[in-house]
Amino acid sequence: MKKCFLDFDRTIQELAYPDTNINFLNENCIEFVKKVKEMGYKLVLNTYRADLKNGSLEQAIQSMASFIEFDEITSNKIAPHKFNLYSDQLFIDDEAMGIPLKKAQKILGAKVVDFSKIIDLLNLKYSEINIGDQIWVNKNWNTKTFNNSEPILMAKSKAEWYNAIKEEKPALCISLDYPDEVLYNWFAINDCRGLIPKGYRIPSTPDVNKLIGYLGGPEYAGVKLKATDETVWEECAYLETDERERKNNWGNCSGFNAVPVGLRRPDGWFQGRIFSSNCWVINENYQAKPSVLRLIEGVEAAILENTEQFESQTNFPITQFAFSIRLIKNTQ
């Protein structure tokens, strides 16, 4: 049986015993609880308040009664195991080794459980797909924080975006058409705080070439990687008969499910909205010259462009653009 052992102080709420003001609910806690219940976990309250026998446990339970329903409550706190999303015994506790923590909003200098990051990691875990002998993720990586839970600058206006590029600051922006999709500049990709979770990586050129090769080569790989929902890729309205037949037979057969998020230029303009998908690809031999995997509306091929090929079509360096991130899992 899968169980999620959930602590109370500095986990569900930001403050800690003996503070009796228990109205400071930790951000995204309720969303996390809903998600783990949907995944089949039994929810267990596991707090040292149970050891105190002074009424503080009952106070905590009463404070949560309207929004969290526990399946069990431990009579004494179980020491938290190491944070491991692949375990059937999931401990969400600020004292669990390896658990994502963030700065508390209500307690100066304290850290509390980062539910937003944990939700990101849960979504990642349940989005893995096998394509050949590779394990990819079937959606883009859309975190808004670095691995240490510090927020990545969100540049909304053209001026904010241009300044971030000019000052070489790591930044992200939200797609204008897909509110859950994020585009990252090159400085965010290379920031020392990291934004790729342990066990995964941004694909390299050999990774992408292997993916395309497994799908039969670049000519029709795009068909096999694009999402098939006709409200997403609008090409369906003007496909030729043979193209539509290939789409019907091969469309998204890989499960990759690419959507046309587009890209953002260094001057702040969005480009390719609703008709292109663009993902960062690492050049292992020359970090400063990345590539980009491009899928384009009406084009059946998967296009892997290196720095020179991409820059031949634009007036800006590739490292001043923002693309999506699609992750591949480390298997060694």
Comma- or semicolon-separated keywords:
four-stranded parallel sheet; 332 residues; Rossmann fold; four-stranded mixed sheet; 19% strand; alpha/beta; 19 strands
- Strand residue percentage: 15-25%
Distance between the termini: 29 Å
Q: Please give the number of β-strands.
A: 19
Count of folded domains: 2
**Rounded Rg:** 23 Å
Uncertain spans: none
Order of helices and strands: EHEHHEEEEHEEEHEEHEHHHEEEEEHEE
Sheet with the most strands: spatial strand order: 3-2-1-4
Quickly give the structural class.
Answer: alpha/beta
| Mean pLDDT, all residues | 92
Outline type: elongated
Proportion of residues in helical segments: 10-25%
State the major sheet. Answer: 4 strands, parallel
- Total helices: the number is 10
Description:
With 332 residues, the protein is of the alpha/beta class. The protein is 24% helix and 19% strand. It contains 10 helices and 19 strands. The strands form 7 sheets. A 4-stranded parallel beta sheet has the order 3-2-1-4. β16 (291-296) and β17 form a beta hairpin. α1 runs parallel beside α4 (115-125). The mean pLDDT is 92.
Summarize the structure.
The protein is of the alpha/beta class and 332 residues long. The protein is 24% helix and 19% strand.
Helices and strands, with pairings:
Elements: E1 3-6, H1 29-38, E2 42-45, H2 49-52, H3 56-64, E3 72-73, E4 89-92, E5 101-103, E6 111-113, H4 115-125, E7 128-131, E8 134-137, E9 153-154, H5 158-166, E10 171-174, E11 182-185, H6 186-189, E12 200-201, H7 205-214, H8 218-225, H9 241-250, E13 263-264, E14 270-271, E15 276-281, E16 291-296, E17 303-305, H10 307-311, E18 322-323, E19 328-329
Parallel strand pairs: 1-2, 1-4, 2-3, 9-10
Antiparallel strand pairs: 5-6, 7-8, 10-11, 11-18, 12-19, 13-14, 15-16, 16-17
Helix pairs in contact: 1-4
